[in-house]
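DM between two lab members

TW: hey, do you still have the Carboxy terminal-processing peptidase entry open?
JB: yeah, one sec
JB: this one, 710 aa:
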Amino acid sequence: MLFSRFRIGLYAAVVAAVFVLASYKLYRGHDAIVPQKEEVLIKAMLQGLSAAHYQPEQIDDNFSRRVFDLYLKRIDYAKKFLLQSDVAQLRKYQTDIDDQVRRGSHEFVDLASQLTKQRSKDVQALYRDLLSKPMDFTAEESFQTDPDKAQFPADAAAQREEWRKYVKYQTLIRLSEIQEEQTKRDPKKAATPALSATEMEAEARKRVLKNFDEQFNDLLQNDDNDRLALWANTIANTYDPHTEYFAPRDKESFDIEMTGRFEGIGATLQQKDGQIKVADIVPGSASYRQGQLKVGDIIQRVAQGPAEPISIEGMRLDKAITYIRGPKGTEVRLTVKKADGSMQVIPIVRDVVILEEKFAQSATIDNGGKKVGYIHLPAFYADFNDNGGRSSADDVKKELEKLKQENVQGVILDLRNNGGGSLSDAVDMVGLFIDNGPVVQVRSPQGAAQVMNDRDPRVQYGGPLVVLVNKYSASASEILAAAVQDYKRGVVMGSTSTYGKGTVQRIFNLDDALPAEFNAIKPFGSLKLTTQKFYRINGGSTQFKGVTPDILLPGADSYLDQGEKDTDYPLKWDEISPARYRAWNQPPSIDKLRTASAARVAASPSFKTVQDIVARMRKRKDDTMVSLNLAKFRAEQEQAKAESKRYEESQKTASALNIAPLPADLRAVQSDTVKQNRVRRLTKNLVKDINLREAVAVVNDQLNSGVTKR
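TW: and the structure you got?
JB:
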């Protein structure tokens, strides 16, 4: 994602005014009766999209078809619930959705909700019946695993047959797992005798039933708010994949991702067996300091201070969390079941929780006596609501300063799996590596592109630089990688291309935009909409195509169709005039570095194994029919296991990186073993990272060619 730091100004005020005007039009008749929440939300949202989206749609039959297709995919992507007759009923509204949103009606959504609710109940009875009987895994039959190649069932009989194969496939997976468990079982240590073939098959069905029941428990808890959020978000997504509606709790989750902080108790929760369990305690949090809540505890009831507790047993996790989180300084009382079966009421005063794992970290790599600095940046985070909050650009600047104190001779900035974030932080971060000049161009639908510049002539770090990316590096990561390429400031390394998100979003709080007359049906949530596209300083867009690295590395993600171009309704690639900029005066010799790297990769057994596995994954991805014969399935599993083992063995033979945490970081947490483990965990996971090892080799090539730090 990419967001600009935004405060209410003229532009926002204009959009807010449009929302307000739209809202007043929503009153019906002479008595000014307030309409339903859905009508207010959809009309206000469409007014905002029409006024402020980068590429607004006409609300016409074409819009209606797009919404229809996407909503159908959202409510039954795998084509497991609706029958062809159901789809035919819904298709009557295919070109009427635009008219429905204008008049504030929702016949299509109502019918879709009614049909999916009934089919969900039908299917639940169906899978329970199928799982109540033994299955024959010697028959020669297969199951289609790709929903895109499947059809909606013609009738109830066809649906039963489809679910019979699907349930059998899921049971086959569990049966194979149980057989694997039995082969590893030590009879001398086992407390119970080995399972017979009949018992293993029954246990497999039992596990599948439990899993399905948990899924359907969540599904059947969907309420009107969930339905409205899905409908609003579907409409928003027809404009582009990054224009979204955020229900209030979704906006809270988004803020946590952007800032790395929230207000609550500081416990990571998971849902298992219909119960809410504590999976982890965040170091330094309110729960950590209070000390009574432990990993493994089951939270059964939640009370706000002295109020009557509410049971959360069987409740969907996202809904349970809304009762547990809360403002700093407020008390929550958790009734928990301990591992020994005892019950305890634990009072915790909520506080700000800092998620340190989401912030930049650094380490040093000993490269034959030469030190190379490594910085891991999981996101371009920024706290838009707090000028004193954490900033990724400021944090990377601090990490660079620490690395300079360690006398590193090269730096690797790891942006793998970094989905982006703050636009201003991306610009400021590029400025740490160049003198000054343009970093990115941003264009609104009207007018010339705005050039965003680094105006600081200081260079925080001027030595050899490698930027690691992969298919999941997006948005702000692509801005930084593209600027490094265009300035010839360093070397970008990674898989075939980055994600391909070249758009800027802004978030509008709908409650702020809608007048007080609607307070009774607030909160409405927020609208995140695409308002601009960004372009490289060479004029090309990163939208749709992404950034192609200077040096390509084999990667397990290279066979996946997971980029902007693979999403629904993405904006297309284009280009504008380049900005005026001056390339770095000590550019790396990309051609020589690429040739040397290619030779090392070709000679590496580890990379050769990765390439072989990717080729097989690509073939397996295209072959979506799976045998439901146990013997054949097990044989395929054994082959996959052998390939995985070969990969693991090749990784073990790769020489380990000599990577270590910074002494300054260890000193800062020397009295806290939990925080020490967090510091050390970064380096532990990188010791056998073959892509990082190759990045170190490329830094070394630059040093040997005479590129030194400035």
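TW: got it. The chain has four domains: 59-238, 261-354, 359-504+532-586+656-704, 605-653. Confidence is low (pLDDT under 50) at residues 5-34.
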